[in-house]
Design brief:
Low-confidence stretches: none
Distance between the termini: 27 Å
Radius of gyration: 26 Å
Number of helices: 12
Shape: elongated
Mean pLDDT: 85
Number of strands: 11
Strand content: 5-15%
Helix content: 55-70%
Length: 375
Amino acid sequence: MSARGFRIASIGGIAIEVHPSWFLILGVVAWMLASAFFPQAYAGWSTAAYWLTGVGAALLLFVTVLLHELAHAVVAIRRGLAVPRITLFIFGGVSHLSRQPRTAGEEFAIAAAGPAASLALALAIGAAWFAVRGANEQVGAVCSYLAAVNLLLAIFNVLPGFPLDGGRVLRSIAWRRTRSFGKATRIAAGTGEVVAWGLIAAGLAFLFLGQWLTGIWFALIGWFLLGAARGEAGAVHADAILARLRARDLMRTDFPSVVPGASVRAVVDEHIAGGGERVLVVANAGAVLGILTVADLRRARVSDWDSTSVQRIMTPRAEVAAIAHDAPASDLAPLFGERHLEHVPVIEDGRMVGLITRRGFRDRLREAAGAGPEG
């Protein structure tokens, strides 16, 4: 998922987030359990009991999904990968690793940890159900449901549908055999597309048979996996090309500059409104003092633009995120992605020698996506 979620907690330095779509699926699961699943399986409860049990089971389901993702994170951290955050969303959860695994064995261990955790949860919760099944019907119902769902999650996640855990296990095996991360990703992504189309076909079959909810759910999961498999393959391909480039290969050197004493009005008329520029360098006798962006214009009222110098509203150089001219181009991804920057100055020997814009970077990524496959 591209959008960031709402941070609700932190576990061992890992931010736990919930995507807005999580609230939708939480409500749907709770409603299905309270209005259909539990009433059909257990008669004689009050309406309040059905809803309390349904909501509790839905919340605990996502606790087990979080434990599944934490299993990935623990193994990743032990292998030297940082895990800044985990996001729960409509289709489950995702652990955001700081980098791709460096070896096939590393990827295998991280990927296999999730299904193993779900299987262990299914067995543990099943044992709890066996212990309490006669003492409290509501608790037994929740345990029975969670044990079954976690068993299904373990089975579903070992399908070779990239980027499911099974798809990542497949990639690790292909990686070890081919000794090429790029080739392994293409193999896993291709297999993932086949699995995705199979789920979509199954969804259409369920719809034809009148099983609307099951059909829509299968089709949605298949559609999500199809996009994720294609996106992962494209991202790895782009990374392979960017890894061979340096920041200096992406920068523009004809960036416009203005003197610090120029009025905001004059700069807007000549460069921003007149020239279509989004960012300007503020320099004095060759020394860069800062940059002026469209966002910086909000620091002064339009009525004061004639009497306000650009130096007063610019972003000072010390506050500007920059990149060395010989840094790998892949280092730009988190700057434009996670930090949402629109431009990154390029520095050489303390001097600004170029400027890389988000638009220019995206254009290069599109070029990478359209080029032939790499390694």
